[in-house]
Design goal:
Number of helices: 11
Radius of gyration: 21 Å
Distance between the termini: 32 Å
Number of domains: 3
Shape: globular
Largest sheet: 4 strands, mixed
Helix content: 40-55%
Structural class: alpha+beta
CATH architecture of the largest domain: Up-down Bundle
Order of helices and strands: HHHHHHEEEEEEEEHEEHHHH
Strand content: 15-25%
Strand order of the largest sheet: 1-4-5-8
CATH topology of the largest domain: Butyryl-CoA Dehydrogenase, subunit A, domain 3
Length: about 375
């Protein structure tokens, strides 16, 4: 990330990189693909000891960040996670933490936030509807039944739903506005179905709510009054997804550049050929632009400015289009070896292609920008 990092933030970045290399290098990531990218509880707890899930949690609940700007600090970690194709629900856990800080009851905060920060438990966010559309409130309808609530419908692209302790569900219903519910996994009427996906390094599921009955204590905030929290959660999720994607792109390009310098053809490094040089130069410009947009998105969300929604959508729209182009350009440099299963290139292409769709594909965010300007 092209930020002027403080010494503490630089230490945070270096520590994250060392941890990833020792605890879950690419060789281990490949092994986890057989388990559909599920991260172990030990890995999560070790990551929690480094503060990965505490940056958006207040100090009274065991949280805190190295700089005081939790979003930027989390983005520094997210970029390193992207470089190493790390498993686990880092982005949704931090989005859930933001939502609970904003709207959670005292009991929800005291019960869940310390457990998330310490890595003793984990949570995920159910936002996209069953068709993969990301407009909040789609897919699940919430109805009030006396002092309780009933959820009906389905959500998809829910990361690590099968291994999470709680699912934060964003629901609509009856013109009352958005509502959110903190649902323990295993709740009667809640069914989790793992999905086969392009990204082999992460696990996604569909979560179906079959008239699931929830007590009043499951409601986060007020019924129909979750719009502000959902917007801030989305901004956090998009900014961190952009940072993870940027890290993956930057690493992929670095490896391709090194390969172009080392691989010889006709007695010369292939990087010395004009066509390859032009391709690398164009790709480098795209990568640097992605880094700048990622930094801008993290800063905007961390500052909580009025332009944060627009900035993160601009970054996501650009990254979504450019990520696949960058990965395909790297394929051109690698040539035939890049198409083999043993090479890591396909894992990076899978990751960035999935990131391009998560929390809104480019067209979705361009439409969102238009709506923000009432166009």
């Amino acid at each position: 990330m092209d930020l002027d990092l403080t010494s503490d933030q630089e230490l945070l970045r270096e520590t994250a990189a060392r941890f990833i290399q020792s605890a879950c290098p690419l060789t281990t990531v490949r092994e986890l693909t057989a388990e559909h990218g599920a991260a172990s509880a030990d890995y999560r707890r070790q990551a929690a000891e480094l503060g990965w899930f505490a940056m958006l949690v207040p100090e009274e609940f065991g949280g805190g960040s190295v700089s005081g700007d939790g979003v930027v600090d989390a983005a520094v970690v997210a970029e390193e996670r992207g470089r190493g194709l790390q498993p686990g629900a880092f982005v949704p856990v931090n989005a859930v933490a933001r939502g609970l800080v904003l709207d959670g009851t005292a009991d929800q905060q005291a019960k869940v936030l310390p457990a998330l920060a310490a890595g003793d438990a984990t949570a995920t966010w159910a936002l996209a509807d069953a068709q993969g559309e990301w407009w909040p409130g789609g897919g699940v309808v919430a109805e009030q039944r006396g002092a309780a609530y009933e959820l009906t419908g389905a959500k998809t692209f829910v990361q690590d739903a099968g291994s999470s302790d709680w699912i934060l569900v964003t629901a609509g219903g009856g013109g009352t506005g958005l509502s959110q519910f903190l649902v323990p996994t295993g709740t009667p009427g809640v069914r989790v179905r793992r999905l086969d996906g392009l990204d082999l390094t992460r696990s996604f599921s569909e979560v179906v709510f079959e008239r699931a009955e929830l007590p009043a204590s499951a409601l986060v905030g007020t019924f129909g009054g979750a719009s502000r929290a959902v917007e801030e959660q989305l901004q956090v999720a998009v900014a961190l997804t952009v940072a993870e994607c940027t890290g993956a792109l930057a690493y992929d390009f670095e490896v391709a550049l090194d390969y172009a310098k080392a691989r010889t053809a006709f007695g010369r490094p292939i990087g010395s050929f004009q066509a390859v040089k032009h391709l690398l130069a164009d790709t480098s410009l795209l990568v640097e632009t992605c880094k700048a947009l990622s930094a801008s998105a993290a800063r905007a969300v961390g500052a909580g400015g009025d332009d944060a929604a627009e900035v993160v959508s601009m970054a996501k729209a650009f990254l979504g289009d450019s990520a696949i182009e960058i990965a395909q350009n790297c394929f051109q440099v690698f040539g035939g070896i890049g198409h083999t299963w043993e090479h890591d290139q396909h894992l990076y292409l899978r990751r960035v292609t999935t990131d391009a769709a998560l929390y809104g594909e480019p067209s979705w965010h361009r439409e969102r920008i238009c709506q923000l300007h009432a166009l």
